[in-house]
Design a protein that fits this description.
The complex is a heterodimer of chains A (170) and B (1011). With 170 residues, chain A is mainly alpha-helical. Chain A has 5 helices and no strands. In chain B, the strands form 2 sheets. In chain B, strands 1-2 form a two-stranded antiparallel ribbon. A two-stranded antiparallel sheet of chain B has the order 3-4. Classes of the chains: A mainly alpha (170), B mainly alpha (1011). Chain A: This is Na(+)/H(+) antiporter subunit C.
C-alpha cells in the first residue's frame, strides 16, 4: 500500500453519541457502593472505551481478511486486536468481581464496598491528635538513661567456678 | 585481590558462625577472631609499602553504569584504621568467648554479625570508590543496629537500636547526596583521584556540608550525640568495638579523608569548629555526673570524638598528625576501658559506681589494665594519650590564628580538663575502696543483699577477659615510648594536608607553654574530680533546657502525627472518593488538552449505515434503563442487550472477530452474573443520598463528554500513518494467515496476547481462591463417586433440591427414587440423555432441555474446533473457540447440575490454564531455539498422500494455548461460582434461607438463565 493513501479520518457521530452514553452511564454506576452495580458500570464503561478504539482507528470498512476484502477497503485490524483482548480480559475481571461480590455477601450479607476500617481509624486518630499506636516509647515523659543502663544486663558467664585460669589472689 | 578476599573471608566466616557456635559453643569466637586478625596482619605486612606511599591498590569493575567499582587502596590513614579495626576486633572476639555465659541466647547470631561488621568496616576504610564507601557505610549502620538490638526482647534495647539506625541512616542519606554531588562534579567516583584533584564547582560547599552531616551522625557529634549513650544497651563487647574503636570512627575517617581537599571551605571550618568544640565540651560535662561506668565511658567517647573530629578536620598538618595519633590512642584506651568495665560487670554483677567498692584489691590485673588506659585517656606522661594531646595543644597554639584559635584552644583545654575529671571518677568509681560502701560478710546460703550502698560479692573472672584489655593498655604505653615510630607511620598522611608546617610526636619538648597548659589541665581536672559532689549537685540544679533526645522524640512524634494527618486527608478509605479523584484528574487534564490543544474535525459522518442507527438506539436505551433498574436481574438483562447491540456495531464497522467474541463473552457474562445473583438480594440496596447522586451524575456527564470529545478529535489528530498499513501483507507472507486480526493476536503482537492470557490465568485463580477458600479448587464431582458414596443411603444427592419442596415434588421423586445399583449403572449408560441427570432434584429437570443439550453439546464442540483451526484465515481463533467450548460447558451444567459439569469436563481447570500458558510460551521458545525471534511463526507444509499439502503454521499451537486458557477460565468460573456455590448452598441450607421473605429471593440458575 502506498503511504500517500490516507485513510478516511472523519469520526462517526452515531458512534460518538453511543460512546458518550456508555461512558456516562458506566461512570455513574462506577461511583456506586454496591459491587454488582460497580461491575455493571465497569462493563458499560469498557464497552464505550472499546468502541472509541474503533472510532479512533478510522472509518468502517470490510472485514480485515485477506482475500475477502480488497486491501484499501479494510477496517484497521490493529485496534480490533486490542479490543478483542480487552473484551476477554473484561470477562475475567467480571468473574473475579462477581466472586468478590459473592464473598462479600457470604461474610456480610450484602455486596456493598465499605470504607476501609483502618483508614477510618487513622482519620479519627488524626482528628483527635492521638498517638498512632499506644507505646510507652512514644510518651513524652523523660527517659531515664541511667535506669535503662542499669537494666541493660548482659548474659554473662559468671566465673565463680571458672575452669579457665582466673586472676586475683588465691 | 587481597582486600576482596579478606572481605569475602569475613562474610564467609559470618555465615559459618552460627554453625561453628552450635558445634563448639562460645569457644567458636576464638576461631571467628581469625578473620579480623588476618586483616590486621595483612595491613601490618604492607607497612613498609604504605610508608613509602605505594600500598596495594585493587580495581574490579562491578556496576560500570553507576561508576560503582570494587576499588580499594591502602594508604596511611586506611592502614591505621585497618590495624585498629582488625586488631581490636580480634581482641573483642577473644574476650567475647569468655564474656558471655555458655548458655546465653543468640550467640551464633552475635558472632556472625560482629564478624560481618568487622568485614564491612574493613571495606569501608579501604574503599577507593565513593559509592562503594557509601555501601559499606550503610552496612555498618545495619550491623550496628543488629548489635545494639542484640537483646531484642528488651524495650530499651530496641528503642536504642531504632534511634541509632534512624539517625545514622538520615545522615548517611545526606552524605550520599554529597558524595554524588562531588562525584558528578569531578566526573569520577574514585576517591583517591578526587582527593588528589578536588573539584571546586558551585555545588561543592553544599556537598561538603552534607558529607560532614553524615560524619556527624555516625560519630555521634552534637546535636545527635545522644544515640551513643543510649546504644550502651548493646552488650559490652559491642560497646568496646563499635562504639569506641570502630564504627564511630567511620565519621572521623570520612572527615580525615576529605579534609585535605576541602578543609579550607568556610562551611567546613565553621561546622568542624562548632561541632567539634561543642561535642567535646558537652560530652565531657555530661560524663561528670554519670554513675554507670558504661555511661561515663559513652559520654567520654562523645567528648573524645568531638576532639578528634576537630583535630583531623581543622586542616593543618600538625593538627592532623595529633588527630591521627589521637585516633590510635583513643581506640586503645577506650576499648581497654570498656573491656575492663565488662570484667567488673562479670565479677560483681553491677556497673554502678555507688555500689562498687574494693574491686581494685580483688582484681589487681584488671585494675592495672584500666589504670594504664585511664592514664592514657587523661593524658598522663608517658602514655599515648599524652603524646597525642601534647601535639594537639602545640598545633592549636601555632596553626589557628585569631580569636577563633583562642576559642578552640580554650575549648580543648576545658574539654581535656573534663576528661581528666571523668577519667579519675571512672577509675575511682570502679576500683577504689570507698568508705561510704561497706563490706558486710554475707553468710553462705543467705540471699545476697542488693541496693545502693551494699557492695556485691566479687568473683574472679577468667584470664581471657583480662588480657585483652591489658594488652591494649600496655600498647598504649609502648606506643608512647616510641613516639618517633608513630610519627613515621602517621606523618605521610598528615603531610597531605595543604596548610601548616609538619610537626612531631614527642614525649618531652622542653619547658614550653604547652607543658604549662598540660599542668593546668591535669590540675583543673583533679580539682573537678575532688569537688565531684558539688559538681553533680550543680549539674542537677542546672538541668533546665530541653535535652537533645527529648527533642528527637518530640520530633519523631510530630512526624507520626503529620503522617497521620496526611494519611487521613489522602487515604479516605472510600472507593467512590478514590475513583472520583482519578476521574476528576482525567477530566481536568483531558479536558484541558481538548480545549487548548485540538481542533474540531473538518468533516463528520452521521452514520455509516442505517443499521448503526438502530443498534445505537437499542444500546442507548438499554444503557439508560440499566442505570435506572432497581432489580439486579433486570439490570443484568439490559446490560446483556446493550452488549449484543455493541456486537452489531462491531459487525457493521467491519470487525467480525470482535462481533463474534462480543456475543460469546456477553452470553457468558450474563450466565455468570445470574449464577452469583441467585445468592444476592433481588433488589439493589437503596442509598439514601440524593445529593451525592446529583454529584455522581455531574461527574459522569463530565467524563462522558470528555471521552466523547476526545473520540471526536482523535481520528483527526493522527500525525503518523497507521501501523497496520502493512499488516495485510505481513500477515499473509510471514504469519501465514488471511485473518489479519488473528495474525496480529498470535504473531505480530503475540507478546500482548501472552500477557493477556497470563492475566486470565490470574483472574481464574483469583475466582477459585475466593470461592474454594482453602484449596486451589475442589474435587471434580463425578457420578461414579456419587454411586460409591450413596450405595447404602438409598436416595443420594439431589442437586438444586432445596427451597420449594412440595407435594408434587414428592410425587415426582417417587418415580426415580432408589433404583437398584445395577439399574443405576444402566441409567448411566447410553439410555439417559445426560449422564448425571438423575443427580438433579426431580423438580429441576427438564426433559426438553436435556434433549436439546444432548444435541447441542457435540455441535458446539465441533463448531469450536472449526473456529480454532479456521481462525487463522476466517473469523474465529483461540479466544472465540474457547468461549464456544465455555458456552457448551455452561449448557451442560445448566441442564444437569454440577455432576453433569464434572462428567462434561473431568479435568481440573488449573491443568487447562497451566498447560495453555505453557503451550503458548513453549511455542515462543521453540522459535527461539530454531534460531528465530521469540514467538515468531514458522510455516510448515506437510505433504500427505491422498489429502495433499497440509499448511501448518506454528502459531496455531500458540492459539491452542490461548484456547486452553480461555476454556480453563470458563471452567474455573463455572466450578466456582456454579458448582461450589451450589454445594455450599446445599451444605448450609442457603437455598431454604433464600426463600424466606426476609432473606433474598433468588431463583435457581435454571430459572434465571434459561426460562
Amino acid at each position: 500500500m502506498s503511504p500517500d493513501v490516507s485513510p478516511d479520518m472523519s469520526p462517526n457521530l452515531v458512534l460518538v453519541v453511543v460512546i458518550a452514553v456508555l461512558v456516562t452511564t458506566g461512570v455513574y454506576l462506577l461511583l456506586e457502593r454496591s459491587l454488582s452495580r460497580v461491575l455493571i458500570g465497569i462493563i458499560l464503561l469498557g464497552n464505550g472505551i472499546n468502541l472509541s478504539f474503533l472510532v479512533a482507528g478510522g472509518a468502517a470498512g470490510g472485514a480485515p481478511i485477506v482475500g475477502t476484502t480488497p486491501e484499501g477497503e479494510m477496517s484497521d485490524p490493529l485496534p480490533q486486536a486490542m479490543v478483542l483482548t480487552a473484551i476477554v480480559i473484561t470477562l475475567g475481571m467480571t468473574a473475579f468481581l462477581l466472586a468478590l461480590a459473592y464473598r462479600s455477601w457470604q461474610l456480610h450479607r450484602h455486596d456493598e464496598v465499605q470504607d476501609d476500617v483502618e483508614d477510618r481509624r487513622i482519620a479519627r486518630i488524626a482528628a483527635r491528635d492521638e498517638p498512632i499506636f499506644e507505646d510507652a516509647d512514644a510518651d513524652m515523659a523523660k527517659l531515664d538513661l541511667e535506669r535503662d543502663a542499669a537494666e541493660a544486663r548482659d548474659e554473662i558467664g559468671l566465673s565463680g567456678a571458672a575452669t579457665t585460669p582466673s586472676e586475683g589472689p588465691r | 585481590m587481597d582486600v576482596l578476599l579478606l572481605i569475602v573471608a569475613h562474610f564467609a566466616m559470618a555465615l559459618a558462625a552460627p554453625v561453628l557456635v552450635s558445634w563448639w559453643g562460645r569457644r567458636a569466637y576464638l576461631v571467628l577472631a581469625a578473620a579480623p586478625a588476618s586483616a590486621m596482619v595483612w595491613a601490618l605486612a604492607h607497612t613498609g609499602a604504605v610508608m613509602r606511599g605505594d600500598g596495594p591498590v585493587e580495581l574490579v569493575e562491578w556496576v560500570p553504569g553507576l561508576q560503582l567499582s570494587l576499588a580499594f587502596r591502602l594508604d596511611t590513614l586506611s592502614w591505621l584504621m585497618v590495624v585498629l579495626v582488625g586488631g581490636i576486633g580480634a581482641l573483642v572476639l577473644v574476650y567475647s568467648s569468655a564474656y558471655f555465659s555458655a548458655t546465653a541466647g543468640g550467640l551464633g547470631r552475635f558472632g556472625a554479625v560482629l564478624v560481618a561488621f568487622a568485614g564491612t568496616m574493613l571495606g569501608l576504610v579501604v574503599a577507593d570508590n565513593l559509592l562503594l564507601l557509601y555501601t559499606f557505610w550503610e552496612l555498618t549502620t545495619v550491623f550496628s543496629y543488629l548489635l545494639i538490638g542484640h537483646y531484642a526482647d528488651r524495650k530499651a534495647s530496641r528503642r536504642a537500636a531504632m534511634q541509632a539506625i534512624i539517625i545514622t541512616t538520615a545522615g548517611g542519606l545526606a552524605m550520599l547526596v554529597g558524595l554524588i554531588l562531588i562525584g558528578a562534579d569531578a566526573g569520577t567516583y574514585r576517591l583517591s583521584e578526587i582527593i588528589a584533584n578536588p573539584p571546586h564547582g558551585p555545588a561543592i560547599p553544599v556537598a561538603a556540608a552534607l558529607i560532614l552531616l553524615g560524619a556527624a551522625t555516625k560519630s555521634a557529634l552534637i546535636p545527635v550525640h545522644f544515640w551513643l549513650p543510649a546504644a550502651m544497651a548493646a552488650p559490652t563487647p559491642v560497646s568496646a568495638y563499635l562504639h569506641a574503636a570502630a564504627m564511630v570512627k567511620a565519621g572521623v575517617y570520612l572527615v580525615a579523608r576529605f579534609a585535605p581537599a576541602y578543609a579550607e571551605l568556610t562551611v567546613w571550618q565553621v561546622m568542624i569548629t562548632v561541632l567539634g568544640c561543642g561535642t567535646l565540651l558537652l560530652g565531657g560535662y555530661r560524663a561528670l555526673r554519670q554513675h554507670d561506668l558504661k555511661l561515663i565511658l559513652a559520654f567520654g567517647t562523645v567528648s573524645q570524638l568531638g576532639l578528634i573530629v576537630l583535630l583531623v578536620g581543622l586542616g593543618t598538618k600538625a593538627a592532623a598528625l595529633a588527630g591521627l595519633a589521637m585516633i590510635g590512642a583513643h581506640a586503645m584506651f577506650k576499648a581497654a576501658l570498656f573491656l575492663a568495665v565488662g570484667v567488673i560487670d562479670t565479677a560483681t554483677g553491677t556497673r554502678d559506681l555507688r555500689r562498687l567498692s574494693g574491686v581494685g584489691r580483688a582484681l589487681p590485673a584488671t585494675a592495672l589494665a584500666a589504670g594504664l588506659a585511664t592514664a592514657s585517656m587523661i593524658g598522663l606522661p608517658p602514655f599515648a594519650g599524652y603524646v597525642a594531646k601534647e601535639a594537639a595543644l602545640e598545633a592549636l597554639q601555632h596553626d589557628v590564628g585569631g580569636w577563633v584559635g583562642w576559642v578552640v584552644l580554650g575549648a580543648v583545654v576545658v574539654g581535656s580538663g573534663f576528661t581528666v575529671a571523668y577519667g579519675l571518677r571512672l577509675y575511682w568509681g570502679a576500683f577504689a575502696t570507698k568508705r561510704s560502701v561497706t563490706h558486710p560478710a554475707t553468710p553462705a546460703g543467705e540471699p545476697e543483699p542488693t541496693g545502693p550502698g551494699v557492695p556485691p560479692a566479687i568473683t574472679r573472672p577468667s584470664w581471657l577477659l583480662v588480657w585483652p584489655s591489658l594488652v591494649l593498655g600496655i600498647l598504649g604505653l609502648a606506643a608512647a615510648l616510641l613516639p618517633g615510630l608513630g610519627e613515621d607511620l602517621l606523618s605521610p598522611y598528615a603531610d597531605t594536608y595543604p596548610v601548616g608546617e609538619p610537626s612531631h610526636l614527642t614525649l618531652w619538648a622542653g619547658f614550653t607553654p604547652t607543658l604549662a597548659l598540660t599542668a593546668v589541665i591535669l590540675g583543673g581536672g583533679a580539682l573537678l574530680f575532688w569537688a565531684r559532689r558539688p559538681v553533680e549537685r550543680f549539674q542537677d540544679t542546672l538541668r533546665t533546657g530541653p535535652e537533645a533526645d527529648l527533642v528527637y522524640r518530640r520530633f519523631m512524634r510530630r512526624l507520626d502525627d503529620f503522617s497521620a494527618d496526611i494519611t487521613a486527608v489522602t487515604q479516605r478509605g472510600s472507593l467512590p472518593v478514590y475513583l472520583a479523584g482519578i476521574l476528576i484528574v482525567f477530566v481536568a487534564l483531558g479536558g484541558t488538552a481538548l480545549v487548548t490543544g485540538t481542533s474540531l474535525p473538518t468533516s463528520v459522518r452521521a452514520w455509516d449505515s442505517p443499521g448503526q442507527l438502530i443498534a445505537a438506539g437499542v444500546i442507548v436505551v438499554a444503557a439508560i434503563l440499566t442505570v435506572r433498574a432497581r432489580r439486579r436481574l433486570k439490570a443484568v438483562v439490559l446490560l446483556g442487550i446493550s452488549g449484543y447491540g455493541i456486537a452489531v456495531l462491531y459487525l457493521l464497522h467491519g470487525a467480525p472477530d470482535l462481533a463474534l467474541t462480543q456475543v460469546l463473552v456477553e452470553t457468558i457474562t450474563v450466565v455468570v452474573f445470574v449464577l452469583v445473583l441467585r445468592r444476592l438480594p433481588a433488589y439493589f440496596s437503596d442509598r439514601p443520598l440524593p445529593a451525592s447522586r446529583w454529584l455522581r451524575l455531574a461527574l459522569a456527564l463530565a467524563v462522558g463528554i470528555t471521552v466523547a470529545g476526545l473520540t471526536l478529535v482523535a481520528p483527526g489528530a493522527r500525525i503518523h500513518l497507521p501501523q497496520s498499513l502493512d499488516f495485510a501483507e505481513e500477515a499473509y507472507s510471514f504469519g501465514g494467515g488471511e485473518n489479519i486480526v488473528n495474525v496480529v493476536l498470535v504473531d505480530i503482537r503475540a507478546w500482548d496476547t501472552m500477557g493477556e492470557i497470563a492475566v486470565l490465568l490470574v483472574a481464574a485463580t483469583g475466582v477459585a481462591s475466593l470461592i474454594f477458600l482453602q484449596r486451589r479448587s475442589g474435587d471434580i464431582h463425578r457420578v461414579s463417586d456419587l454411586d460409591a458414596d450413596s450405595e447404602g443411603e438409598g436416595e443420594g444427592v439431589r442437586v438444586w433440591g432445596g427451597g420449594d419442596d412440595n407435594k408434587m415434588a414428592a410425587l415426582r421423586r417417587r418415580g426415580v427414587a432408589a433404583p437398584a445399583p445395577d439399574e443405576q449403572r444402566a441409567i448411566t449408560g447410553s439410555r439417559a440423555w445426560l449422564r448425571a441427570e438423575r443427580t438433579l432434584a426431580p423438580q429441576r429437570r427438564s426433559v426438553i432441555f436435556e434433549v436439546v443439550t444432548r444435541l447441542l453439546f457435540p455441535t458446539l464442540i465441533v463448531f469450536a474446533v472449526y473456529l480454532l483451526f479456521a481462525g487463522h484465515n476466517a473469523p474465529g481463533g483461540g479466544f472465540a473457540a474457547g468461549l464456544v467450548v465455555g458456552i457448551a460447558l455452561i449448557v451442560r451444567y445448566l441442564a444437569g447440575g454440577r455432576y453433569e459439569l464434572g462428567e462434561a469436563a473431568p479435568v481440573h481447570p488449573g491443568l487447562l490454564l497451566g498447560s495453555g500458558l505453557f503451550l503458548s510460551a513453549g511455542v515462543g521458545l521453540l522459535a527461539l531455539i530454531l534460531g528465530g525471534e521469540a514467538l515468531q511463526s514458522v510455516i510448515i507444509d506437510l505433504k500427505i498422500p491422498l489429502i495433499g499439502t497440509l499448511h501448518v503454521v506454528t502459531s496455531l499451537f500458540f492459539d491452542l494455548g490461548v484456547f486452553l486458557v480461555v476454556v480453563g477460565l470458563v471452567l474455573d468460573v463455572l466450578r466456582s461460582l456454579g458448582a461450589e456455590i451450589d454445594r455450599q448452598g446445599e451444605a448450609t441450607g442457603a437455598d431454604d434461607l433464600a426463600s424466606t421473605p426476609g432473606g433474598n429471593r433468588a431463583g435457581n440458575p435454571a430459572e434465571g438463565a434459561t426460562r
